[in-house]
Amino acid sequence: MGIRNEAVVTEELVKVYEGGVRALDGVSLRVGRGEVFALLGPNGAGKTTLVEILLTLRRPTSGRAYVLGEDVSDPRSRSTVRSRVGAVLQESDSFELLTVRETLELYASLYGADRRRVDELLELFGLSGYAKRLYGKLSGGLKRRVLVATALINSPELVFLDEPTTGLDPAMRREVWEVLRRMREEGVTVFLTTHYMEEAEELADRVGFIVGGRLVAVGSPRELAERYGGSKVVRVSGLDRRAAEEVARALGDVRSEGDGLVYTASDQRDANRAVQTVLSIAPDAVITVSNPGLEEVFLKLTGYRITEEGEVA
Amino acid sequence: MRRPIAFATVVVRDWVRSRSTVFWTLAFPLILLLVFGSVFGDVRVTSVRVLVVNEDLDPSGRPTQLSEAFVSALNSTGLLELRPVEPSKDLGEAMRDLGVYRALVIHRGFQEGLIEASVAARIDVITSTLEYVLANFGQSVPPENRSMIEEGISALRQMRSNLRAGPVSITFVRDDADPSAGAVEGVIRSVAQAFNLRLIGANDSVVLDSSGLGFRRTRWIDLYVPGVLMAFVMVNGVLGSSQMLADMRRRRLLRRLTITPLRRSELLAGLMFAHLLMALVLTVLTLSVGWGLFGSSFSLNALSAALIVAGSLLFTSLGLVVGTAFKEVEAVSAAASAITFPMMFLSGAVFPLELAPPAMQAVAKFLPLYYLVEGLRASGVYGSTVSFIEGLAVSLAAFPVLLLLGSVLLDRELTT
């Protein structure tokens, strides 16, 4: 597939900031049109830097990057890229004293979009009832909905969503996911960055793991789980401290998760053995056996977990 | 034009809907105008307050005729605003109470001493005249007449010796730090000299004719209205635009708008246009209050309108530089305040610069607001063009430099 047929292409992309911080270290990536791609990584991994380069806000130190076939390093491509994509930047906000409708109308004016598009998006995102409400008076979840709606005002071919749910409580996060699912149904290509594994699993067709500016793995959640996640995950809870210590000793390679333990089994047989071991120590323990998720993949690849706040642990 | 207007609409809406912004940028200048206009509205710009303590009272406790005449003479100059203070009251206390640190004390015995001094002065004139006549033309005077003259001189000398020897003194109490004290002292001296001449019946040999401007009666409010108007065009431009940019940066809205088709030049044009609109609203309101309540003689003509536009552009571009040179909202706010408030007070916009110490007057010459205020007063009050041209020249020279600098800083921040 040629560069023109892909939504995003990067080749050996490097970004070194003043002071020598290497934010991106040779990132090569392809995102197809119509795809929902999630770039997963902890804080400081280089996700936002990559998005800002693709949005023509930053210049790469070396390497190439193409968005919708346009070279983002070429100043002549800037306006073309900006008019064809939409974006929700990390921690971005809007004018507190504009109403929801006025906010969308502002972006419609900037893009020269039809005012009917404003009504469509209000309807699509369930914002019609809030159209006259000031943006500053909305809840966090509604604000994100408005921001995502502004990203779609120009009916873009590609939308960048940089950490669109960071800082939201789980209910609000699910509200935003619902919106993103609707975008997928509309056939919009989505480039999403997040540090929430569950979010990527729920929404993405393909996932890329980025750590320390390097892309360490790319694939669909299923492919990645099969390739790196092991076969089964055994979660154990309802143990007292002594029992937990004994289970950990007996199984060996376990990790804590909340007030329980997690064991990644190599295959079904290994999972069965682990269940029997736990029951022999603590017959009342609550045990669940499931297929591995992205969290296990990330752990396997890096040796770390990503906390709720986006830090590595 | 669609995109700059869309952005300008946002800036204006943001301004109109923020109660604190509307208060500080629109209501506050009007309140200042109402308060100061009510207090000083009809005061002539040249009048200076002076306390007068008249201790020279007649037996009934009223000021003597001559001391009152002296005060009337001072009053008639129109240069001083005299405030009487009871002689029984402590002068220092009265000064503090009234906030006026200049006082003229007419001592007890002023009238009596003045009458004696004037008689003595007349005798001195007569004796010296007679002595001059005898010394130069004595040989042609018959001996019997000469003897009579000598007897007359002797009698006059006898009379003179019984009269007060020196002049009557009055006291001007002044604060050495008061820049207008010298001018007030000069006014009192000249009135005293005129009084002296009148008392001996002499006529003025040199007469100074002074005349007003003739075409316009300038009052303090006439100068205050353009001063406060331009000062708040400056505050709106610098504080308003810098804080708007800082807030947009904090919300990452500058970056968000950058990835829309809105060009940098369109963003800046929208910002300038919005602040120009606000300056025009401020102009309409300020002048309406000035004209409607205080009968201000300021006229909004093509020249004064041009200066208001130039001022708005200049100060909005200064705000652009401040808003892009500093990263944090607090730093931007502090820097903008550090520029606007001293400039407002040092440029003579709100307080007459003539009352400021010389060093402060020298500083004013380096402030753009000084030239714009002077230009606005010249064009709107006196209808003159010299200061207008200076004001316009300062704006036209500084505006493109600041705009370019702000634009470069903004560009550097948004594309790295």
Can you put this structure into words, describing what you see?
The complex is a heterodimer of chains A (313) and B (416). Chain A is an alpha/beta fold. Chain A contains eleven helices and 14 strands. In chain A, helix 3 packs across helix 4, helix 8 (221-228) crosses helix 11 and helix 9 packs antiparallel against helix 10 (268-281). The mean pLDDT of chain A is 88. Chain B folds into two domains: 2-41 and 220-415, no CATH class; 48-199, no CATH class. Chain B is elongated and about 115 Å long. Chain B is mostly helical and 416 residues long. The two termini of chain B are 28 Å apart. In chain B, 69% of the residues lie in helices and 6% in strands. Chain B has a four-stranded mixed sheet with strand order 2-1-3-4, sandwiched between helices. At the A-B interface, helix 2 and helix 3 of A face helix 1 and helix 9 of B.
Write the SSE topology:
The complex is a heterodimer of chains A (313) and B (416).
Chain A: E1 6-16, E2 22-32, E3 36-40, H1 47-54, E4 62-67, E5 70-71, H2 78-84, E6 85-88, H3 100-111, H4 115-124, H5 140-151, E7 158-162, H6 170-185, E8 189-194, H7 197-203, E9 206-211, E10 214-219, H8 221-228, E11 232-237, H9 241-251, E12 254-257, E13 260-265, H10 268-281, E14 286-290, H11 294-302
Parallel strand pairs in A: 3-8, 3-9, 6-7, 7-8
Antiparallel strand pairs in A: 1-2, 1-4, 4-5, 9-10, 11-13, 11-14, 12-13
Helix pairs in contact in A: 3-4, 5-6, 8-11, 9-10
Chain B: H1 2-17, H2 19-40, E1 48-54, H3 65-76, E2 80-85, H4 91-98, E3 102-106, H5 110-137, H6 143-161, E4 170-174, H7 181-199, H8 220-250, H9 253-258, H10 264-294, H11 302-325, H12 329-346, H13 358-364, H14 368-382, H15 386-414
Parallel strand pairs in B: 1-2, 1-3
Antiparallel strand pairs in B: 3-4
Helix pairs in contact in B: 1-10, 2-8, 2-10, 5-6, 8-10, 8-11, 8-12, 8-14, 10-11, 11-12, 11-14, 11-15, 14-15
